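#random but structural
TW: two for the price of one
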Amino acid sequence: MNLQVDATRVGGRATETDGEGAAEGGASEDEPFDVLTTGRVGVDLYPLQSGVGLEDVTTFGKFLGGTATNVAVAAARLGRRAAVITRTGADPFGVYVHKALRALGVDDRWVSAVAELPTPVTFCELFPPDRFPLYFYRTPTAPDLQIRPDDLDLAAIRAARVFWVTATGLSQEPSRSAVMAALAARGRRRLTVLDLDHRPQFWPSMADARREVTVALEQVTVAVGNVEECEVATGTRDARAAAAALLGRGLDLAVVKRGPDGVLARDHGAEVSVPAAPIAVVNGLGAGDAFGGALCHGLLAEWPLDRCLRFANTAGAIVASRLACAQAMPTAEEIDAVMGAGQRV
């Protein structure tokens, strides 16, 4: 017997469903979300031994993961009302996703199950300070790529103060159509963000990725990516040239993360560059998502761009000094303490 369990929010109880829809509930439907994301979710199984390959690892920690999910968690940890639109398998790991989201303060009403697919699992290897190979188990496809246009609450998407989509969601149908339907409904409202998140293994070719990202850029106001991701979007690895090219697509803000060289951002009034926060790296994965959630927080607070970037950089550094991704997201107090002390993380 294939019992399908979808632990959606119905009075705080897990409920049995047909795996095709999330139950209603949670906060008032009339209150817009501060940060609403859509995209990847999964379970991260990270080794508890560093410096060895997976063939020699004996124990793992289980954590919530996935770029869009991590960004929502990061924003929630900073006191923002956050939700994620995604899909899991109808399996115990799917139940875990719901439990973890609720525990971390993220609304899970739009997290539904796909009966025939497993919840994705991701393994990594830890070779600090700069090598963290990822192994994605998302075959034959992932539930989060099965988000359909008719699954979307377009009113909530339009109302969200920040709406955050990822380029990975453009890699397959029906997710690609869902992302574009959401962006069309959004109408290029302020703080409509495309995370350039690029995983080559999810795409047939870089040319395919560039084509779809180019189309999506016409519907957003903010783009965020690392140097490699900006190259996919613009054809150049030069941070200054990439930021200029992104603004040339009609965006309000372009953010280029440069790893140990810090971050460069440009809007139509200024270009700002800040150095990387000093860090003793444990696991570099998830740092960019912490940056994203903290950037949302700063933009919503209408901070100056320099302050936004320094706050987001510090959030990313804190997560890179920890093993997990979602569960490692820092509070505002933790970030302020590190910034105020000027200390190495």
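TW: number two ↓
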Amino acid sequence: MEHLTRIPKDRIAVLIGKRGATRKMIEEACGADLEIDSKTGDVSAIWNIGEADLIKRMKIPDVINAIGRGLAPKRAIQLIEDEMFLQMYDIRKWVGRQPNQTRRMRSRLIGTNGRIRTLIEELTGTEMAIYGSTIIVIGDQEGLDLAKPAIEGILKGSEHGTVLYGLEQDRKRQRIRSRSLESFEDKGYEEDSKFDTLVPSLADARRKRERRFKSAQVDPENEQEVAELMEFAEDEGAVFEEE
């Protein structure tokens, strides 16, 4: 049996689910039997030999932690996928252990009617959950990279407008970089194709030159390679004259 993690006691029922539905879903996804201690919140796994994938085995604690920190089970199970990752923030790192400050920061991150959290999720393609003093974010690496400065900016006290404007600019820059890379790759391929099609003789000459250059690189210690290099081609010769 392998200990995976510990979750808050008030989230144990969510992890188990109605008639054990959530636990069963996780067990089928990761190839293990879960043991959940209802008194402590400790979660352990008994791995089924031959069924447990190494990557899933590494990522299942993130799934359980996400559920334990407020994320809905059907959303948390996405973390099983290779491209999905979990990022966790502790609000106390920015405001200390004062409950009033923690509640105030939670409200700032959520916004009126959840507007701020929704905007961050939409602009980054991530999903967030705020529970107690923790914030969890799940998404692909690009989405997490976008969300990080926005979340940390709010935690540091920046205005919502400033943070959202910066997030939009970061998103635009990310898209431009992505498009530029795709354009560069496609352009390089098209130029090669057009060059070979329109001027095949020059392309052949280029390839011959490259082969000749490569063949000229011989090992000076290898007598056979040196002798082959010194041989004249059919149209070559040497003339000795006195000055």
